[in-house]
Structure formats: C-alpha cells, structure tokens
Specification:
Elements: E1 40-46, H1 49-61, E2 67-69, E3 93-98, H2 102-109, H3 112-131
Antiparallel strand pairs: 1-3, 2-3
C-alpha cells in the first residue's frame, strides 16, 4: 500500500497515511514528468552514430527535452552494426519527443541526413583528384 501524496510505502493492514492523512492506494500513479506519462512520438531515426551525435547537439542547444530509444544497445549483440549503420537485431536509434514539440524538432533536424550525405560525398569527391598522379 502506498500514499499517493508523499509516496510512502505501508505494510498490509494500513489504510491511511499517518503523515498526509489520505487513503492509501495499491498502485502509485506515475509521477509528474515521468516519461511513461507523456505523449511521446518518434521525431527522428538513424543508424549513423555521427548523425545521432549531431541530432543530440542540435536538440541540446535548442533546449528541447528528448529521449533516445535503442542507442545504448547498438553494439551489445555480437552482430554489431554491420553495413546498415545500425544493429539489425535492434533497428535504428529513435529520438522521441513530446507530441507538442514534434513539428519544432522535425524542423530543427530537417535536412540533417541530406546535409551529412552531401558533406560525405563532398569529402570523397576530392579524393579522386588527389589520388591521381599528376599528368606530365
């Protein structure tokens, strides 16, 4: 038994909290701010650790609260990330935000994958020129 106000736990047989003088409940309601109590939606997903780091940075700088799902288990299993950029057992990492901030987050992270792909291609585009031997 629990007090819904101060969240103290009581043995069976007690019916009221001695501190708060309220009726005890069998199960505590979620605390305010508990992620389980929020309406979360997936706003971004990636298997690329570099893109994930950039997304973290952008959201942290904008002071947007978010949760990641699957980030800590990407390399847990022996299969690892293989060629997909993410573990085929766990899937890509999801960034979850409150539904009321979804549009804002999508706008902040819009084009992140395209920018990274263009930057990556730009890095490799010059390699061909540098790797060639000078013509004589």
């Amino acid at each position: 038994m629990f007090c819904p106000q101060c969240r103290s736990e009581y043995r069976e047989g007690f019916t009221r909290c001695e501190s708060c003088d309220v009726a005890l409940v069998a199960v505590l309601p979620p605390e305010a701010g508990d992620p389980a109590d929020r309406d979360l939606v997936m706003a971004f997903e990636t298997g690329d650790p570099g893109l994930l780091a950039m997304a973290h940075s952008i959201l942290d700088q904008a002071a947007v609260p978010y949760l990641t799902q699957g980030e800590g288990i990407q390399d847990l299993f022996g299969v690892g990330r293989l060629g997909t950029g993410f573990s085929i057992l766990t899937g890509p990492v999801h960034i979850l935000v409150e539904r009321v901030r979804e549009a804002e987050v999508r706008q902040l992270l819009d084009g992140l994958e395209e920018d990274a792909a263009a930057h990556h291609l730009g890095d490799h585009a010059g390699e061909d020129e540098r790797d060639r031997e000078p013509e004589v």
